[in-house]
Prior knowledge:
6-stranded mixed sheet, alpha/beta, 434 Repressor (Amino-terminal Domain)
Amino acid sequence: MNRNELNPDASPQAAYGARLRSLREARGWRQEDLAEHTDYSSVHVSAVENGRKSPTLRFSRNVDRAFGIEGTEDSFEREYREIKHGSLLEGFPEYVGHEGRAAEIRLFEIGIIPGLLQTPEYAEVLADSAVKRRAITTEQAHERVALVAERQAALARPSSPLVFVMLDESCLRRPIGEPAVMDAQLARLVEFAELPNTVLQVAPYDMGAQRPFDLPLYILTMADRSLMSYAESAHRGHLERESSFVLPLLAAYHQLQAEACSQAASVAMINQLRKVTP
């Protein structure tokens, strides 16, 4: 067995490999045993443990199944996402992992179209803008755009989730990119509203103080009907699993849906904006 003495603090990949080795040895497994449980070769397992090969999403999920830690705080899928999406806010990579398996997704967004509904061109404008502000690197910008596509692809699974989208009116009126980019994005919203498993509504400006949320919010209902929410500020995100905290948010979301424009009125507003877009 090719065993290097890794410093877990050397890099996120080194920390991943060291923890993988530690859990394997705690089970009394050889690399060959873990390979058999994950459908990978022992050479591949060794390369990941020793930091010569970066982990993948598939490998991480197979390892989680082998160790029985799927969906937990200590899952390797969560660690993988933190490695891959290091420029994202705390908690968001873990949220994305759950989002891809949720039975129902509810979201509220302010200012920008949410990632699940973004066109590639719209996503690229946002990412490029962050690069120009030196908030992220060019490589991280590519990762963000790829993550948008990855999240959208996860919704196209055989048992598609119900997706409820609530957009503050500012999402529609804030121009992003050239007029053609914005027009295509608005057209994408109309297409989304026509899907059989979606609901799209706009929270108009004249709701005033009746709008219960001032920050973006995501609420997931999993297949076992458990709830979790994700909310973020400018500098950090927080994933909440405790139902006693999530249920009041869900109730407020339902109130927002009741007060907002209907889907038909929302689509009409979007189409009207498309007519006046230069």
